[in-house]
Amino acid sequence: MTVRDRGALAAMAAGAAALTVATLVACGSRPAEDVGADEAAALAGATPTRTASAAATGDSAGVPVNAGALPAGGATIPPVRLRIPAIGVTATVDPVGVNQRTDEFEVPPSVDRVGWYRYGPGLEADGGSVVIAGHVDAADQGEGAFFRLRELDRGDTVTATGDDGRERRWRVVAREEYAKTKIPLDRYFARDGSPRLTLITCGGPFDAKTRHYRDNIVVTAVPA
């Protein structure tokens, strides 16, 4: 995976618009204290991490990426359904890549669906980060599948069903919030390190002028 591929993180959940400014300010003003950050970092092993910069992101809307290359070797099992009982999520998972027009990570336009980054590991992988992202909300659709992602805590369970019909359970070990210009991108888009599931959406204050959230919420889970 290229450096530009890993730059997709900040773009994954960007672009979610407001129900109303008041609603978004209220949502963004409920800070979720980070938990499990050390454990999330340890799962990535000793791989150096790269932090997004203002120069790389251009603005809070997202990070340009390229189409990348699919992981080599073996059949990839994509997730097709995601269940998170603690926050009432049952969502279809679409394989996504890069919007060729904008060069940004392409989150499904329907906010009740989420996207799996198909240039990273699938559910069969023995290592690396399986990345799934979704919108927090949208002006014309309301709350997204990951609207309550910030409420997840250590010990909560996530079930991802593959296109092979098999359910795989994961246990949440970390929840972190980053400014989109400060995310250690390599950590969350790695194809190495311990097997883990990475869930991402927008969070933090909402900028009514740019119509983007400032931050990303990142939840890390390990096989249960």
Automatic annotation (TrEMBL):
The keyword Hydrolase applies. Residues 1-26 form the signal peptide. PROSITE patterns: PROKAR_LIPOPROTEIN (PS51257). The keyword Signal applies. Keywords: Hydrolase, Signal. InterPro entries: Sortase, Sortase_dom-sf, Sortase_F. Coiled coil: none annotated. It holds the Pfam family Sortase. Gene3D superfamilies: Sortase. It comes from the Bacteria. This is Class F sortase. It comes from Micromonospora solifontis.
